[in-house]
Amino acid sequence: MRPNLTLISLVGLASAGMINPAFADGAAIAQRGTDHGTPACASCHGANGEGMAASGFPRLAGMNAGYLQTQLVALAKGQRVNPVMSPIAKSLSAEERAAVAGYYASLPAPATAAGATPHANPAGERLALQGRWAQGLPACIQCHGATGAGVGATFPALAGQSSIYIENQLHAWQQGARAPGPLGLMKVIASKLSATDIRDVAAYFATLPVSTANGRTKP
Ligand code: HEC
Ligand code: HEC
């Protein structure tokens, strides 16, 4: 990325110890966008990558870098389609996608967004923790981690994620708007969920406290 004033001032912050210098390029994109028309990610994903739950803008802070980068590539290549996010992902170069993914992964995950009562949705909790074996539906936590914190670059965190965002993704797989992903697992799983199941399981995960594989949760 060409140096510009924003980048230079962010590099200044980095050298003052406020931003990890390794992620200065990504920080510049996140906070200010690019000089070739990409809007600031922060305007939708929040000043600290915490997301905007009520608008269905997902949390990015503390998510796995490899996962975020893969999603940006899928959005840029049209394998995953969203009218808002696709053109933004397309506007980034491969280097910029890697830099901004690394930056968000380096941020501490925010505490639970809504502060709602955990485990308030028994039907959602059953699906999340036990699945529905009569239908060959495995428990969500078998892949997404016991606390919904995600596992590596393949299985993203669901705990504390916007319930609207989770619902939108499950509908996107049902409608073919999101690539089937690794082994087509989520397309099959989404096809076994009713609209009510989707609401319940999304509500359940949204109320769980955010915890991340890198173990950093903001107080
Ligand atoms: C105008 C609002 C807006 C802006 C600006 C924006 N995004 Fe998004 N972003 C969204 C929406 C909406 C979604 C959810 C898309 C969907 O439902 O599939 C999303 C989803 C994502 C995802 C997928 C997350 C996941 O868990 O799979 C990534 C990664 C992402 N955005 C990164 C970025 C980056 C990096 C920038 C800045 C270069 C950015 N976004 C700017 C609205 C925005
Ligand atoms: C067999 C493994 C497996 C199981 C079980 C599973 N998932 Fe997933 N899930 C995945 C994979 C792999 C991805 C990443 C897909 C991609 O890369 O596009 C994913 C992604 C997701 C996402 C997208 C998150 C984001 O940040 O965009 C949601 C939402 C989700 N799963 C919900 C669920 C729910 C709800 C359940 C239980 C009903 C569930 N998953 C069970 C493997 C699984």
> How many individual domains?
2
Rg is 17 Å
Average pLDDT over all residues? 87
Question: Spans with pLDDT under 50 lasting ≥5 residues?
Answer: 1-5, 11-17, 213-219
- Number of H/I helices: 11
Strand content: under 5%
List the ions, cofactors and other small molecules found in this model. Answer: heme C
CATH class of the largest domain: Mainly Alpha
**Helix/strand class:** mainly alpha
CATH-assigned fold name of the largest domain: Cytochrome Bc1 Complex, Chain D, domain 2
Q: What profile does the largest beta sheet have?
A: none
DSSP strand count: 0
Helix content: 40-55%
> What's the CATH architecture of the largest domain?
Orthogonal Bundle
Overall shape: it is globular
Distance between the ends? 34 Å
Series of secondary-structure elements, N-terminal to C-terminal: HHHHHHHHHHH
- Give the full name of the CATH homologous superfamily of the largest domain: Cytochrome c-like domain
How does this model look, in words?
With 219 residues, this protein is mainly alpha-helical. It has two domains: 5-40 and 63-106, Cytochrome Bc1 Complex, Chain D, domain 2; 122-207, Cytochrome Bc1 Complex, Chain D, domain 2 (Orthogonal Bundle), CATH 1.10.760. Helix content is 47%, strand content 0%. It has eleven helices and no strands. The protein has helices at residues 5-15, 24-32, 42-45, 65-77, 85-90, 94-106, 122-130, 141-144, 163-175, 185-191, 195-207. The protein is globular, with a radius of gyration of 17 Å. It binds heme C (2 copies). Residues 58, 127, 138, 140, 142-144, 154-156, 158, 166, 169-170, 179, 181-182, 185-186, 189, 201 line the site of one heme C.
